[in-house]
Amino acid sequence: MIYPFSQRFIDILGSVFFIILFFPIMAITAIFIKIVSPNGAVFADIVERVGKDGKKFRMYKFRSMIPNAQDWLKSRPELYKKYQENSYKLDPDPRIIKGGAFIRKYSIDELPQFFNILLGDMSIVGPRAYFPFELNEQVERFPKAKDALKSALSVKPGLTGIWQISGRSKVDFLGRVEMDAKYAKRRSLLYDLMIILKTPFVVITGKGAV
After folding, report:
1. Is the residue at 18 inside a domain?
2. 210 occurs within a structural domain
3. Does the pLDDT at position 91 exceed 70?
4. Which residues, other chains included, contact 196 with Cβ-Cβ below 8 Å and sequence gap of 6+?
5. Which residues form a coiled coil (predicted)?
6. Is residue 209, in this structure, part of any structural domain at all?
7. Residue 73 belongs to domain spanning
8. How many domains is the chain partitioned into structurally?
9. What are the backbone angles phi and psi of residue 19, rounded to the nearest 5°?
10. What is the pLDDT of residue 169?
11. pLDDT at position 45, please?
12. Any idea what DSSP says for residue 194?
């Protein structure tokens, strides 16, 4: 019972601290996006994500792609099929704006998620939030993921987590869900601290980012 309260306390303090710390970077990023891609919004126009117990929420993320990137992709069936088969990633991705690859590689696009943490939709540490369509399509493709997914969705999604520090885009959907399920069963303040301490190295090196 102590863990949930301790986790929430750390989430609030941590999100406030990092919002203040990274505010200059977030401000510069927002200005840069409007300069290189003036027709779109600063934040990504993405569908809702699936949070704890299947509850949907709006994840805040800097836009690193062209406006209406998902619709653009769906209008190209062959490319969209490749996108699905590659665990919803393209490398290289033709939708990325100038400078967008840098923003994504070093996880700058993820910084606004500290506001999601402050609001209580996310935690600093947890599984990567899933897309609703991703769950439907990938569970059909990987039936073995169904049971693990129940465990993964029993906790709040996180800004960082075991999948995020263990290869990210290099790990397929089934591997990702199994990692998230193991985290949900094992989670503790000590385990969360270990993940947090490993995160800066992954961010600096851009390991597994697409």
Report:
1. yes
2. no
3. yes
4. 124, 125, 160
5. none
6. no
7. 2-204
8. 1
9. -65, -45
10. 66
11. 80
12. H
